[in-house]
């Protein structure tokens, strides 16, 4: 998607028009194949500017706030690439702060800094072309992931392509200086390489020791939920269940925004490992927190997993009713209710939890889940419930509603239609009528 932007940057700052190509033809080629794609990308990003309420609930920032924050983030990417340190380079940045004011010092300085660099790159395009090339290559390669598309704020792996231009410019600058002041430049390059090797050795040592790495990352990212859960998973993998549970209990106090998710995972571990008493009272306390809890994408899946294991009696310390209420409370949270995958998962968990004791509630939850996402496996479970409860007419009406769904893929459309026909035949056979 960004290839035309990177080619255009290279053309503007480093290349010249081939002598055998007429100026008018060259301009036409550049306009059609480079400028127009750039305009299309800008138009696409402009269309993504207004976040829906659901996106704001999940991400915790607006498009404008993301743009302000990214102005700061891009400088951090650059600084960490050129002068990295072990505690700043790591996998957990989910606790990165959101900047909400344009007059915030960091935002103001960062934005002005980029404006100055871009201006200098254009002004000195002829004299120092590598400056403009590095700046516009770096920013151009970040056009999608570091502007208004509502991704998470900070991920270091987004820099693989953007940093190519930066390091080409740095290498060119070092080479140019080496011609004039060889001893000083040589000493600086050797020192920088040795420092980089030391850092690489240090990073390799950390990453090569999972137990130490989890401690180190959590120490430098105490507010990161991912660092917290990673520490728990490492302790569990090492068989230190008690230590993992103690760590999660303490984390619930220090990370109140995600206390509900940590609590759910903790209760699941306690029950699955038989490492302590779990009961409905504990789940009820967690359920009371869910309507206002911060969004975490794997929370619905964790509730569904707990519900499945309770149904299969792998873990019977808590009731299905309490799990039903847990899913219901999560659905009361706008962040989860507005997220299609989360809503579908939670409704599926409610259907599973209520199928044994409250079949009509289960039926309603199945239907709601299928209206959110068309799932053939879930539809089969619902049809068997229709037949079990002799709700034949209701089943036929719902299958008619589901038949109206037409997958865009021709093969999937055929499979879905054939599946509906099979379920209609099963219901018709059960009450000797026509569905």
Automatic annotation (TrEMBL):
Record keyword Transmembrane helix present: yes
Chain ranges passing through the membrane: 28-47, 103-124, 131-154, 160-177, 184-203
Keywords assigned: Membrane, Transmembrane, Transmembrane helix
Top-rank taxon: Bacteria
Stated name of the protein: Tetratricopeptide repeat protein
């Amino acid at each position: 998607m960004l290839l035309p932007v990177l080619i255009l940057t290279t053309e503007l700052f480093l290349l010249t028009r081939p002598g055998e190509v007429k100026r008018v033809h060259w301009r036409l080629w550049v306009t059609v194949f480079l400028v127009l794609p750039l305009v299309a990308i800008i138009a696409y990003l402009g269309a993504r500017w207004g976040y829906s309420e659901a996106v704001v609930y999940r991400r915790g920032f607006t498009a404008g706030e993301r743009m302000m924050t990214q102005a700061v983030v891009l400088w951090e990417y650059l600084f960490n690439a050129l002068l990295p340190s072990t505690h700043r380079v790591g996998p957990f940045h989910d606790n990165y702060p959101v900047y909400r004011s344009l007059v915030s010092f960091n935002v103001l300085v960062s934005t002005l800094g980029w404006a100055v660099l871009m201006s200098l790159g254009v002004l000195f395009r002829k004299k120092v072309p590598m400056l403009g090339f590095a700046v516009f290559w770096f920013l151009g390669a970040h056009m999608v992931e570091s502007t208004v598309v509502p991704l998470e704020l900070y991920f270091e792996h987004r820099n693989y392509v953007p940093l190519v231009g930066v390091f080409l410019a740095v290498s060119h600058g070092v080479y140019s200086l080496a011609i004039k002041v060889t001893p000083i430049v040589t000493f600086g390059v050797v020192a920088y390489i040795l420092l980089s090797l030391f850092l690489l050795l240090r990073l390799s040592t950390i990453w090569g020791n999972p137990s130490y790495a989890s401690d180190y990352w959590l120490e430098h990212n105490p507010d990161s939920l991912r660092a917290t859960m990673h520490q728990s998973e490492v302790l569990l993998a090492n068989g230190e269940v008690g230590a993992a549970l103690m760590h999660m209990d303490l984390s619930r106090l220090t990370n109140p925004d995600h206390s509900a998710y940590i609590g759910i995972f903790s209760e699941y571990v306690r029950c699955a490992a038989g490492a302590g008493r779990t009961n409905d009272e504990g789940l009820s306390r967690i359920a009371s927190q869910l309507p206002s809890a911060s969004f975490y994408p794997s929370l619905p899946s964790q509730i569904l997993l707990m519900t499945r294991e309770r149904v299969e009696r792998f873990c019977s310390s808590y009731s299905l009713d309490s799990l039903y209420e847990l899913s219901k409370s999560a659905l009361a949270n706008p962040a989860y209710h507005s997220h299609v995958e989360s809503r579908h998962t939670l409704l599926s968990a409610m259907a599973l939890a209520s199928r044994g004791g409250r079949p009509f509630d289960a039926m309603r939850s199945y239907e709601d889940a299928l209206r959110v996402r068309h799932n053939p496996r879930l539809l089969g479970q619902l049809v068997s419930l229709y037949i079990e409860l002799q709700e034949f007419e209701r089943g036929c009406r719902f299958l008619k509603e589901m038949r109206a769904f037409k997958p865009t893929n021709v093969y999937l459309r055929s499979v879905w239609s054939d599946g509906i026909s099979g379920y209609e035949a099963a219901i018709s056979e059960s009450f000797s009528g026509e569905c």
